[in-house]
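Researcher: We're reviewing a set of sequences before deciding which ones to prioritize for further study. For each one, I'd like a predicted 3D structure that I can look through quickly. This is Diguanylate cyclase (GGDEF)-like protein. If possible, include the structure in token form so it fits the rest of the review sheet.
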Amino acid sequence: RAKNDQRGQYCYYTTEMEQDTRQRLTLLHDLRAAIDARKLKLFYQPQISLHDGRPVGAEALIRWPVDTGAFIPPDQFIGLAEYSGMIIELGDWVMRVACEQAQQWTELGFPWMRIAVNVSVVQFRNPDFVASVDRVLKETRIEPARLELEITESVAMQGAANVEPILQQLKALGVTLAIDDFGTGFSSLSYLQRLPVDRLKIDRAFVRDMGTQSERSSIADMIVRLGHELGLTVIAEGVESPQHVNALKQIGCEEAQGFYYSRPLPANDFLAWLAPFKM
Ligand code: C2E
Ligand code: MG
Ligand code: MG
Ligand code: MG
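Model: Here's the predicted structure for Diguanylate cyclase (GGDEF)-like protein, in token form for your review sheet.
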């Protein structure tokens, strides 16, 4: 006879697949409820100029706090939000809150701070995406260049005929464009050259071993040289140690982001972190 699980449903005969589906549905239901209850938060992680050690911007990273005080990491629910289409609404919310935050930084004396926002492939493919970016820019009145959209290398390079025109349209709005997790995909260099992007973001897999003699650390060097060849600035993610910082400076990387400087912080803590940099 089937046993009861906590919800009083029979689960003995359920296959693993059905259980998996049920878990996903539960998570989706919880995510919907969390969005409606405005429980989702943005955390901010500084991006640092390697020239002078000052913050030039921050990346907004979504957090889903749960009652225990912990939070469900984005990797565990972004995919589901994409699958269900909820990411359109969520992504819009992220952009809006992030731009409002950047406007607050301006009011508080940090007008140069950029705000980087991650864009999901589902948002990017949504025909309304460019219009939604335009809407957020107008409604928050942020200077467009201060909004940086991060598109992963795999999305930028999927070769789909319309990636380039969409990036052109975004660029025409005046926003800054960065390619996230660079080095993990299979970029066609001639194609990359055509894309109107401003920045490459070295994936942390290639930062991890920097300062040691490893092949992966020389990939960071190649990415920086490639970026400069194409007239792009380069930022490294996952910077965790002074060794990383020194190695990145040596290869001419412009900017860095990682635990060495700060973990992603809630808005208030981020402001406290930022305070000493007021000019
Ligand atoms: P990502 O855009 O590549 O973000 C960088 C991730 O690396 C973040 O994880 C960040 O907390 C983490 N990180 C930062 N510094 C370090 C470091 O020094 N060492 C290590 N080991 N990790 C570091 P997080 O916040 O868990 O986000 C994971 C991914 O989820 C992000 O990767 C991004 O792809 C996605 N994501 C986060 N927020 C959003 C969002 O608002 N919208 C969308 N579409 N995706 C998001
Ligand atoms: Mg990112
Ligand atoms: Mg990244
Ligand atoms: Mg990454």
